[in-house]
Amino acid sequence: MPLRTPPKLDPALALRESSSPALEWKKHECELITPLYGGGVTAGEVDPDMPVRASAIRGQLRYWWRLLARHKWKFGTTDQIRAREFELWGGLGTPPQASKVWVRISNLGTPDIKPWAKYGRNDKDGWKTLPDPEDWADAAYALFPGQGKKPGTAESKEPASLVKHGLKLHIELACDTKCSAEQRDQVFEALRWWASFGGLGARTRRGLGAIGITGLELVSAEEARAAGCRLVLAGYPTNSISAWKAAVRKLRDFRQGVAEGRNRGSAPGRPGRSRWPEPDAIRRLTRRHAGLHAPEHVAGNVFPRAAFGLPLIFHFKDTGDPGDFSLQPAGRDRMASPLILRPYGQGNQWRAAALLLPHAHLQTMELTLPNGQVTDPGQWWNPAVAGAVPPLTGRGTDALTAFLAYFVK
User: What is the pLDDT of residue 362?
Assistant: First the structure.
């Protein structure tokens, strides 16, 4: 029996959620300040008819409300927070509850959708392994899922297309007449946090799809601290794209930069050995290594970069080294990064920003190692060996703290 094809959704309907005429709507003028990646029905693809969805914005607001409920407002136990969330945002309970928060989009401009990079030829008249980014999206470290595959192979795929920054729209919010004044304040606070640190589409924690809202005061470092977060800024005021690229470049260099995350290579174009302990830990656990790559990192079998988010994909190129390995949390496919990078508005200009979210859950996280062993909670890192990991030396006892120190230097 052939599958039924669902009817095409009218874009005008997807821009708004059905509402009562009695609602009082608050309109916010918005602009996309970094490129938008994904957000459509197909993962990693922009929907040209509906690049922005009202339901997605409401989902983002709900996430930030949940974070504030736990870490700032301290509404109590998980069950108590869940009950308050269900009352305001709705859900599939018994019985189901409709959301009391309404979102609609108006005055949506025409999105400028372009590939963020393109593959070029190398000096041997073949194709480069990695594509060359356009200047407005020159943050390949944040966009690696959308880099595609080079031409000339069966897996060839063009780099993803993004919505370029500059798209303007109005986001309108309304609360049900049954909402209390406290609930209305909570929704507005969630909007401020989303506008300060969130975004639209995929890879928002690496600054893609960031939104600026005219006249809205951003969350300060002091407010972030009160919610168990830490906000730091770097560099000089500039435009939003330059600030975003600077933030992403900081993370790339900290993790992989020459003389920071890895040694200098023995020849041009050949990367040096990593200064992080994970590659040698994998070699020890699998008992495999290339002739010149016997495990030597003195920190031992620890995985500090797991704190940045999982999975971590390891690719060894030399004969004798382990095969590709994906480091993952036990029993799950992924763990979202507690680190957010993006532009942070200061007047009419922007600075590179890093926000560290509450991350106590890392202390109880278990990892599945390449030998099949599952670590005890938190066993994947030992703060006592931080001094033996060069990117951490003198900066902190874990990768996240050390990165924030590196970010602001």
Answer: 97
